[in-house]
Amino acid sequence: MAVIFNIPGALREFTGGRSTVQIDASPATLGDALTALWTLYPGVRDRMANEQGQIRQHINIFIGKEEIRYTGGIMSTLSSGAEISIVPAVSGGTSDSRGF
Fold first, then answer.
1. Taking the model in full, what pTM does it have?
2. Which of 62, 55, 67 is closest to 83 using CA atoms?
3. What is the pLDDT of residues 62-87, one digit of tens each?
C-alpha cells in the first residue's frame, strides 16, 4: 500500500524539489509513514518534529481532509492510497486591510 505526501514549498529544498513523495513501504500508521519519509529525507524531520519526536506546534498534518490532531495524531491509521498533506501554520499580518 503506497501513501502520498504533499510537500509544502518551504520543505521542498529537503526533498530535492519534489512537491509530492510516494512511500511504498506499506505504512500502517502516520508514524510509520513519517519514519519512512524522514529516512528518505532526513532534513524534513528537523523542520517537522522536535527533539522528543513530537510534531511541532506550527505544523499541521492532514490525512485526506482530516486534521490528525482530531484523528489519533501520529497513530492515525492509513488506508491504501492515503494522501497526507503537510501544512505549515500561517501567521502574521494585520487585521487592518490598509496595512497599519
1. 0.85
2. 62
3. 999 999 999 999 999 999 899 999 99
C-alpha cell at 58: 506550527
Q: Is the pLDDT of residue 100 over 50?
A: no
Of the candidates 22, 4, 21, which has an alpha carbon nearest to the alpha carbon of residue 12? Answer: 21
Torsion of CA 24, 17, 31, 26, to 10 degrees: 0
SS3 content of the chain, % helix, strand, coil (to 5): 30, 25, 45
* Alpha carbons 86 and 76: distance in angstroms, whole number: 15
SS (H, E, C) 26-62: CCCEHHHHHHHHHHHCHHHHHHHECCCCCECCCEEEE
Q: How far apart are CA 73 and CA 30, in angstroms?
A: 8
Q: How far is CA 43 from CA 40, 65, 71, in A?
A: 9, 26, 26
